[in-house]
Fold this sequence. Notes:
Elements: H1 2-39, H2 43-55, H3 63-75, H4 79-92, H5 99-153, E1 159-160, E2 168-173, E3 176-181, E4 186-193, E5 195-199, E6 202-206, E7 215-219, E8 224-227, E9 243-244, E10 252-256, E11 264-267, E12 272-273, H6 280-288, E13 294-295, E14 300-303, E15 306-310, E16 318-322, E17 328-333, E18 339-341, E19 347-348, E20 356-360, E21 363-367, E22 373-374, E23 389-392, E24 398-404, E25 407-412, E26 415-418, H7 420-425
Antiparallel strand pairs: 1-2, 2-3, 3-4, 5-6, 6-7, 7-8, 9-10, 10-11, 11-12, 13-14, 14-15, 15-16, 16-17, 17-18, 19-20, 20-21, 21-22, 23-24, 24-25, 25-26
Helix pairs in contact: 1-2, 1-3, 2-3, 3-4, 3-5, 4-5
Amino acid sequence: xxxxxxxxxxxxxxxxxxxxxxxxxxxxxxxxxxxxxxxxxxxxxxxxxxxxxxxxxxxxxxxxxxxxxxxxxxxxxxxxxxxxxxxxxxxxxxxxxxxxxxxxxxxxxxxxxxxxxxxxxxxxxxxxxxxxxxxxxxxxxxxxxxxxxxxxxxxxxxxxxxxxxxxxxxxxxxxxxxxxxxxxxxxxxxxxxxxxxxxxxxxxxxxxxxxxxxxxxxxxxxxxxxxxxxxxxxxxxxxxxxxxxxxxxxxxxxxxxxxxxxxxxxxxxxxxxxxxxxxxxxxxxxxxxxxxxxxxxxxxxxxxxxxxxxxxxxxxxxxxxxxxxxxxxxxxxxxxxxxxxxxxxxxxxxxxxxxxxxxxxxxxxxxxxxxxxxxxxxxxxxxxxxxxxxxxxxxxxxxxxxxxxxxxxxxxxxxxxxxxxxxxxxxxxxxx
Length: 432
């Protein structure tokens, strides 16, 4: 048994040596090919053969292999690898007087110079990166600061409507209406009124569109506002203002309260209900012209054998007529006796500049003194002449911009803030 083991190692040993020598020989062949490729300027192929040779070596133990690695990687401008092979070469090369040694020494210096350049370039790029990163952080910081300032100057509004010639407009937020001016100041806060009208220089705010119980009036010209009296001050039986018509330039507001046999006409300047004028002469004129059959001292008029309650005067000779059950029969025109039935003219507003507003269901049209349709009047709210423009900011906020010194500028009262682009430009040349 012992003899068999000895014989096995005797046979195995030459095979192991042969295998080791084969790797060395194959590596040498690849190195020769790489050398030839290098001399023929086939650098990429030289690298392929060189790497195959190195893969068959446990370590680089001869100067010539290291020298070839230096040459190939130098040509490929992979200076870090060339530098490492050069260091290995100087360890292995003992003849410091040979031409190869001198050549490698010069090449080593060149490699070192190139590495220094790369290092300097890396430092420069890193410096530039850090500066850019710092600049971006500063830019982000400025943008955040601007946004915070802009939002602090913004109006909490979903919509700001068109400004009038008095530099004011309706705005709406969370279903409520308010009034704002063109420098972003809230004139009437939007926290109570769900409906609004704007016409002829007046804003009318109501707690509900249908049958409001609260009405606020704002005069855009005088910049003054007030609440109308409780409806019970007009009529003890009424619980709401009913249909509210547009305010007119004659400073009159007409509404149709419930449980009333009179139309409410309110003077928006004197802030009082307007009482009926003298009816006796009016009734005589209507009877004389046979526009009515009869009248009595209680304010009733008879037309076609039916009595109606005279409901006051809304101007232009147009007078509402009520049924005894408080429903509106229609209107009589003192000008020519025309009868305007409720089914055709639901509600009629105040007479001004030869025209009256009519609401019929959801439609609006305008008439003259005998009920003939006419073109709408010119709204005395006028046309805005300022430079303010409104832009939406974050959800639920609007920003007012004005053109100041040729630049779009956010305004909020006396506060000013340049638009984002100009704001950032104003900081770009400052040190940081």
